[in-house]
Specification:
With 330 residues, the protein is of the alpha/beta class. The chain contains ten helices and 13 strands. 33% of the residues lie in helices and 23% in strands. The protein has a six-stranded mixed sheet. It starts with a strand and ends with a helix.
Length: 330
């Protein structure tokens, strides 16, 4: 079993290596891949040092699975080249998510959408993953009509340059910037580029990906995505309207029973999900502040938090790889 990790020196790539080790993924060889300037460097996984190679070298090595986290342009160009060798590509960029015939997978929800013919599998957007984890069991119970979500997204979702920008600003140091505006002690209501409809690309990802993963185009979704000076994970305020009246006790029971979800909701004890306190370095999706919307029938509000580098990216990809191995699809 040969596993390529494309983008192995980036935040998500490093996290993929960490999670392969933590989850004791059954591999014989790791093939770390990065840009030409990183070729020859080494990365650590499972107590061994692995030399970083180029994309061309990795394709020639014919890995069984390739975990991609190197941006959309790289994925569009190179994922098909890996797939042509028989490798299964699990891509963390947005390049293939909405492509017809490409599964968009959160394993707890729709792993069965993968078959032996799929050589490219899309990993959803980090904010979408944590939201649909909560939406799915509630949709099965009450049928969702509409979702209104506002996100509070960590700088780690942008990458190392954004983290460095935040830390530099915090100490008054000049450096490379990921954002057009100051992020320390500020909020930026723009994630990715604006589209012709006034939404950002990030917001449209959440809208379109939710429908695809849930396999229900009737669900209306509207989103506002905001970058916040936070480490540890993304947070979301979500308002969900159902066709049928939700019961809060039943909602909490169903969510608690769903794999990968932890309900943290005790207002008397001031317990509710927080990125630094709960989500950081966890693979769970945390949900709390669950309450009825008193302004509208059949509607509830909740607060969802998850580590965007783990369940929102690397862990979800490794879980897909585990599904492939368990079902003898590689």
């Amino acid at each position: 079993m040969r596993i390529a990790v494309v983008g192995a020196t980036g935040l998500v790539g490093k996290k993929m290596l960490q999670i392969l080790e933590e989850r004791k993924f059954p591999y014989d060889e790791i093939i770390p891949v990065a840009s030409e300037k990183s070729v020859g460097q080494t990365v650590s996984c499972c107590g061994k040092e692995w030399s970083v190679v180029s994309l061309a070298t990795a394709v020639a090595a014919s890995p069984d699975i390739a975990l991609f986290s190197a941006g959309g342009e790289t994925s569009l160009e190179w994922a098909p080249k890996f797939a042509e060798t028989g490798c299964v590509v699990i891509d963390n960029s947005s390049a293939w998510r909405m492509a017809e015939g490409i599964p968009l997978v959160v394993p707890e929800i729709n792993a069965n959408s993968i078959n032996a013919h799929n050589k490219i599998i899309a990993n959803p957007n980090c904010s979408t993953i944590q939201m649909v984890m909560v939406l799915k069991p509630l949709h099965d119970l009450y049928k969702i009509k509409r979702v209104v979500v506002s996100t509070y997204q960590s700088v780690t979702g942008t990458g190392k340059v954004a983290v460095d920008q935040l830390m530099n600003e915090r100490v008054g140091k000049e450096g490379e910037k990921a954002y057009a505006h100051t992020i320390d002690m500020n909020l930026i209501p723009q994630i990715d580029v604006f589209q012709s409809n006034g939404y950002t690309k990030e917001e449209m990802k959440m809208i379109l990906e939710t429908k695809k993963i849930m396999e229900d185009n009737s669900i209306a979704v509207t989103a506002t995505a905001v970058r916040v000076p936070v480490m540890g994970g993304h947070s979301e305020s979500v308002n969900i309207e159902f066709e049928n009246a939700p019961d809060i006790t039943k909602v909490k029971e169903v969510l608690s029973a769903f794999p990968g979800i932890e309900v943290v909701d005790n207002i008397e004890q001031k317990l509710y999900p927080m990125p630094l306190i709960h989500a950081a370095e966890s693979d769970s999706v945390f949900v709390g502040r669950i309450r009825l919307d008193e302004s509208q029938a059949n509607t509830l509000n909740c607060w969802i938090v998850s580590d965007n580098l783990r369940k929102g990216a690397a862990t979800n990809a490794v879980q897909i790889a585990e599904y492939l191995v368990a079902n003898k699809l590689v």
